[in-house]
Amino acid sequence: MDAERAGRRMRDSLIGDVPPIVIAIGLLVLCLGLMASKGIVFGLSIVSLHAQLILFSMLVMLAIDVLWQLWKHRPAAPVAHLKAHYLTPRQYAHIGSRLPMLFVFIVFMPFFSKMKGMIPLFNDYTWDETFIAWDQALFFGHDAWEVIQPIFGYPYVTAFLALLYHLWFLLIYPGCVFFCFYRVDPLTRRRFFLSFVLCWTLIGGAMATAFASVGPCFLEPLFGNPRFAPQMAYLNAANEQVPVMTLHVQQMLLEWFNTDARGLGSGITAMPSMHISMAFIYVLAMRHVSRRAAQAFFAFFVAIFIGSVHLAYHYAVDGIVAVAATGAIWWGSKHLFAWWDRRQHARFAPDAAQPALV
């Protein structure tokens, strides 16, 4: 009976995941077509690297969960307790129902990295001056970094923000594993993955290409515009006192750009900010998981927003647009799944209106 019930739950979960899986596959095919139109050859090595990062995240999170189970229950027979907890039909069905979404994620992200590196093939970087003007309009004639510099312009504060900016990558790997396997409510999990896929493609792909810009740190190296030279001078001076990790990454991205590399994590784009978009998705999703977790992720989101400007990656408007677009996608995902669930309920529920046979 347990196996039968687990099978039904697995079926229902897989059916519920159809929209994000179908949308992701469709966008994947579109990416393949766009890459082929530019003569870009796709290799499996980048997917292999991504899969290794996911597998490592899964193993780490499984180890953490094992330790939590042992600490919480303190069983007299630890091995027997873990077998009874993990090796059950319910767990098998739970894991099996999550594998299609996990597979899509493993393949999807490397394609995004490829597309991000292809932005110059589709559009020129011409929007920086516009976004600089928007920032000045918002901050009364000043660049955004100048306004926050008196508050955050201390080497140790800068280094801390740079560290948090790097820790953001935990959202991409362990974070997605968490939402894939942790028992959050199904609607939140599905909304998270659909929003994740759409944010990377619509915000980080389509919008980034349409509004191609490089951001403050790359403005002088790529276009000879020294407007943000004072900001970069401060960051380099701070780096001499305490390591500012983002400076090394910025140099690496610049080298990849100049050598036309399109590996995992490569590509230069400022508008909109995907760091802020992803951080905001976790704020929206974690509200349905834990109040304290939501507060912590909101604090992280604020730090990422400040860091994106202070560390010279983004203009302030990059983050504002990212928040608005991400919020719209999250809102739309709720209505899409409401429609899908109504449709499936009508399909599988017994027809109460049908007269009984006599």
Topology:
Layout: H1 2-16, H2 18-37, H3 45-73, H4 78-86, H5 89-117, H6 119-122, H7 128-138, H8 144-152, H9 155-167, H10 169-172, H11 174-181, H12 186-210, H13 216-223, H14 229-241, H15 245-258, H16 274-286, H17 291-310, H18 316-348
| CA distance, first residue to last residue | 31 Å
Q: How would you spell out the order of helices and strands?
A: HHHHHHHHHHHHHHHHHH
Structural class: mainly alpha
Overall mean confidence score, pLDDT: 87
Residue stretches low in confidence (pLDDT < 50, at least 5 long) are: 351-358
* Main sheet summary: none
Number of helices: 18
Shape: globular
Classify the oligomer: single chain
- Rounded to an integer in angstroms, the radius of gyration calculated over CA atoms is 23 Å
Based on DSSP secondary structure assignment, what is the total number of beta strands? 0
Helix content: over 70%
Total tally of structural domains: 1
As a percent range, the share of strand residues is under 5%
